[in-house]
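dumping this here before i forget
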Amino acid sequence: MRQARTARVRAAAVCVVGLIALDRSASAQAVLPLKGEGNVTIAYQNILADGHLLGDGERASGANAHDAVRSDTWTSEVEFGITDKLALSLSLPVVAGRYEGGAPHVIGVSGLPTTIDDGTYHGGFQDFRFGARMNVASGPLIVTPFVDAIIPSHHYESRGHSVIGLDMRALVLGTSLAMSFDPMIPHTYFQAQVSHAFVQEVAGLRPNRDRMDLELGYFVTPRITLRFLESLQITHNGIEFQQPGQTREVSLNHDRLQMYNFLNLGGGFGFTISESLDVFAAVSSLVWGQNVHPHRGIGVGINWHFRTGPALWQPKDPGREDARATRRGPAPSALF
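structure:
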């Protein structure tokens, strides 16, 4: 009975990362690992973007109307419980992209020639993400504020269709919430994450971002979870796609400074293989956007829960198993 309950409230953290969602943290969930315990998550995401949307949401014309970009992202993340109320995390994506359209960027952000959009894959390590989460309420509504620091792993090209990221530092502050609907709606839960990203200033502009991720989940069996996913992002103090009157500095940095606004909807599932191993998959598609590429994607991954030190040898008594069940709930798992 105890084992079934533990399995039911667990789900893997989808830690896929999209190029326009640099303030999305896979580990910034409301449920923390216990002291001495942690999670290692490895995920793969494939995204197909088709064309550009203007600032009013209409599709761009000409060569920018349907120029495809394909990208692949592999993300590894480790999180660890320092105490039962505090967890730290570290992640680093590897991204590769290929531009398949007829309007390549031939000048990079430095103003020098670039071949980033030559029709072949270009990839590399993207941005380190260091995170800390502290739980302040544990039930029935779980409340966990978090802070993340985003630091590029190196200076990479950030002007072009197939770039691996924006090469910008950011500080993300937010809060994650989680609650089970049992017994009113059996086997159902929700999670939400709201955040604000303070972004590095470039060319006199600081395109800060607000983001909200929602997840509604249902346990079909103690091992199988179905999820409905939503992601909304609004960017402030940036520029619109093809905005006239840009200075040369702004024009060279237009990919970094655009006001990326979007709403993604999707769904997914998680499967618990064992007490320490979960696999997951999800799909998502843009349903509304401004200054973005219309895109759709699929992600798959695996999550391994581990124990160290005293936690490794501590007997699995009912009280500790119930505590783990409370803290290791399903993660908000929106793509992008």
